[in-house]
Structure formats: structure tokens, C-alpha cells
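go over both lines:
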Amino acid sequence: MLIRQTVVHDDFRTAADMAADSARELTLLRESRIAELVARADCAGPAEVPWHARSFPVLAALAPVMTSPEGEITYPGDPMCLYAALSVPVDSALRSARQGAGTDVPFSDLCPSWGKPPSKVHRLSAEHGLPSQRASTGTSDATVFDPRVWDAEARAELRAELRRHRPRVFLVSTVSPGHRYALEMARIVKQELPDCLVVFGGRHMDETMRYAPAKRSVVLEYSSTLRAIDDRRAEAVVDFCVSGEGQFALDLLMKAIALAMDLDRTRATVGDVVRILRLFGAAGIRVPGNSLVCALDLDTVHAFPVAGEKLDLAALPSPYQGFAIRSRFPVFPLPDGSPARTAHMTVSNACPYHCDFCSESALVVGGLKRFRGSPAETALERLCEYVSYGAEAVFFDDSIFWTGSFPLMREFCALLQAARTAAGPEKLPEGCRRWIVDEGDWRRLRQLQFGCQVTADLLTTLHKEDEVRDLLVALRDAGCTYLYMGIESMSTDVMQHVHKNIRRITDFPWKAKVRTALERIRDAGIPVGSSVLFGLEGETRKTIEETVYEVGRLVDDGLIMLASPNILTYHPATKITRAHGMHDRLDYHSPDIENRPPYIFFEEAFPGVVSRRLTEDDIWFIHEQTATRWGAIRNSAEPEVRKVEAAG
């Protein structure tokens, strides 16, 4: 065992007895460091300290899931889980860069450098690619490493980026299937820059690391980063882990790192950062949200649980403030046939349904949060901001659009339609006029397309037919040109176990709900994409065949334009993972797991972490049958013929 003890520091959850003394100590520390910076720069005061004298380089990365692009499904879209997590710390750093040093500045002395926010010209010409491919040196985009595929080229590019930027902090966002590659990224960082601090966050952290207040203890799942390090299944190449609603917690950690770093900006030790975090907590500093920051200092884990005021998603800074929109979605075609530049947006953090296989359920995420205040108006203003950044389309990544609230959907659609059809930009609401400032912005807003996710129950049994049809028309008239719906399975034997199928009416089975919902969407003139999930409870070869056939009928009838087959992959915190006895067996850390056919043809699928209800022969069968039956509608590569060696 590597970790000898875990020490919990819960000042961020409770009132500090010595807050006044600690606050004074913190102020004196900041003042002394600022005074030394001023003296070193030989300038008149804190505000005059040049940026180059107080900034230190950082690099953020999105851990990919894939190892080879050939024959595999790529994740479309920007790395929004990373950009969303960076929204608060990037905003704090950009404001600190503008204001200069000072005790009333977010980063009082040293400050992480995220580069300059991209200009409008840069935003309107941005394309995806590795930093060297997109030549974004000098902008914030250069501080994000997003390889999409983990291969020899990506490894070499990461080493080149590390040598170019020499970051003092390396931040990684990872989902569970990308965790093994996140660990490899961290190993490369420590090889190139041993003193660089490595911070892990993302959904894998959220699902595998939490704080239990009643026991004042940290709960680590088998596949968590820290437990893998403790068991020596992974190297100790990670210094900090952040889980939960981590936007403000990550900002707090970055401020502690900045204050712990020597003024020559060469290094900050984990121990020094822990000391500053303890000082922050004792001084009475509190931040919104519920989160957990863990620091690994030699053989000790220092845990800092955070419990602040309820997080308001609408109050968070824009994730695109410092970064260009690079995604292009083919489902949003422009008049010339090219895919539209697509922004991603969320107005809620979780799904209200409780499906046992889903890591987006509110039960797993830790509660459902939405835009508060005037949510529809705020969402419209945020959307106009994205349009000003060059967005030609917006996809709402919420598990269910507006968590399924018809009143909020109707209000948002009415506001957006009014904005798109206004007599001119001067007629827009004040919050929108600040973003729609030229003819290009106005044209993109008028022509804006958007898409979102719905469910079959939402469009059938939960509302009257006329209400559903009226809502679909409102969506269409507001610019909705694409809906995405999770079909999951077309077998009653499977769907009886799925909470998404919440109104189980004998004479209205799931497959009838799906068809009815799709027919209503078609009548409104909105194209539909769908996902199908194989390997749920009750799955057999017979139910697989039934689902492939029934989805094929939907394709034949023109009810769906896209069908994405998926294999159930065990997420660490889901109920089905425990029900199938996999919670202490998930290998999301070994670097040498061969991701091979047929697994590579499905998102997130790896040997050893897919449904125990499926054999490898079943997975081949699903790949081949969906490719044959669904044809070009299937969202995947061309089918590969199974290689079977002849006997003898």
C-alpha cells in the first residue's frame, strides 16, 4: 500500500474558530508577496507589475477514449466537460491579468496564464486540430490539448507541447474509458517536467471519489485514481483530484497553487499547496457548490470537502469566454452542405430519470440543478453570446431539454423565435444587444439552428397529444432542426427494467411509444437521431434481434435519420455496475489493454468493462447486423468482416 493515511480538513464545510487570525495571516502573506513582486519589477505599485513577471504557464487536456481513428466512432463536439470546469478559473485569471496584482484581485500576485482570448477573426476561422495543426499560438486555445485519439502522434505532440510551454500545472478532464490515457498523459508530464503539478477532474473523478460527511471520510471506488495508486495498479503521477461541482473548487485550488508557488515561478510543492488550502479554509473563504479536493503528498492524502451555497448554473462564466468554438456537426448543414460551427450548451446538470445504467442520472450526479432566476431569458442571452463567437448552430447537451419542463421549453422557444424574427438587432432584449453587434452576428442569429434531447415518454404518456404537438411546432418555429432520442431497446422484456419507461401501460408498450413519439416529431418536420443500447438487464440474442429488426422498421419508415448502436459499458457509480458485481473489477487504469474489434466499433466499449449479458460473439453480431439492417443510417464506420480461422 502506498497511501499511509487520509487526513480530512473540513474547514470549507464548517465555521472556523480562528477565522479572524487566519484571515489576517492570509492578508499579510499576500501583501508581502505583492511587495516583493513590486520590488523585483522596480515599478510604482502592484497594478504596474508587468504580466510577464507574474504569469506562469498552464496546460489543460481532455483525455481521449480512442486509440485509433480507423473504423471507430469519434466523439463529436468540443470538450465541454473540460471547458465548463475551467470556466471559473479561466474567468478569474483573465480578470486578474486585466487588473494587475493586488489584494482585491482574484489572483493577488502570481497568476496562471491562459493566453489571450481569441479575437473575433480567430473565432470565425477556428477549426479543430492539435495546437501545432491549428497554429493558435498566443491564444487561449493553445493552452488546451485535445487529441481526440491517443496514438503515437498524440504522445509525440504532447511531449512537444510540454517542451514548448513548460507548464507549471497540467489539468486533465477524463471520463472512465479515457482514464488509462489520462494516467499515461500524467506519466509523460512527470517524465518531461517532474515539478509540474498534475490535477485530475472530470466524470471519472465524480463517479469514483466522494466525501461521506457522517463518517468524515473519503470514499474511493476501486477504479478511482487514488485507490489505483494506493494499490500500485497505477503510478503516483497525480498530485490533485477534484470531484463534484468543481468549477469553484478548481478555482480555489489554482489560487492556492499560485500563492504557494515561489516568486521565481519555478515550482509549488504539494505540501505548500496543502498549507495554503488549510489557510484558505481557516480564514473563512467559502465557495459555491459541493465538491471534494484531494491532494496526494508522499504517502498522505489530504482531503478538502467543500460545501457552499447552491450552485446556479446560469451564474457561471461562459465556457467559451476564453476558447474558440471548434465543433462542426453534420446534422446541422449549412446551405452549401458543409456542417455548421456548433456550440454546446447546457441549462441543467443531470437527468431527472433514474435509469440504473446511466451516469448522468441525478442520483449519480448528486442532485438536479438548472438555470435559476429568469432561466429562459438568461439562456437566450448565453445563446446570443455564442452566436457572437461564431456559432451557426447550438446543441443542448442536457440529458433532457430543460429537464422535460414544457413551460420552460415553451418560454425559451417563444423568446428565441421573437429574437430571430425581430425587425432588427436594435429590437432585441438588452442582454442580447450587447452580443449581436454586427451584420454577421445578426445573420447567424436569424439563421441559427439548434438541437436537443427528448424521450419517448415525454412526447407520449406524460402529456396530452395536443400539448406535445404544439410544443414540437414551437421548437421547429424557433429553429430546432434536430432532436435526439434514446430508444435504448425495442424489447419489452428489456425495457421493463429501465426507469425511462416510467408509464408502463399494457396496451401502449415501449415500442409503440417510440413509434408514436417519432411520428409526432416527423409530423412537425424535425429530423431525429437516436441511440440504441444493447446489454441491459434481460438482454438475450432474441431481444437483440428484435431491437435490430424494429429499429430497422423505423429506418424504413423514415422516422429516424441516424441510429447509433452502443454497448452497455459499466460506469463506476451506476446501480447496474453493482448489480452485475463489477464495481470492484473495472479496469480503467491498465495502459496495455488492447482495444480491438468488435469493441472499437462502439463508443466507450473496452474488453472487460462491457455488459456481462453480452458475449464477444454477441457484440460481433450486433455490429454486423446493425450495419447490414440499418445501412447508412447507422452512425459508425463500414462493417468489418469477422476474421475466423478455419479449423485444421
In short: The first strand starts at residue 5 and ends at 8. The chain has 22 helices and 18 strands. Confidence is low (pLDDT under 50) at residues 70-78, 637-648. The radius of gyration is 25 Å.
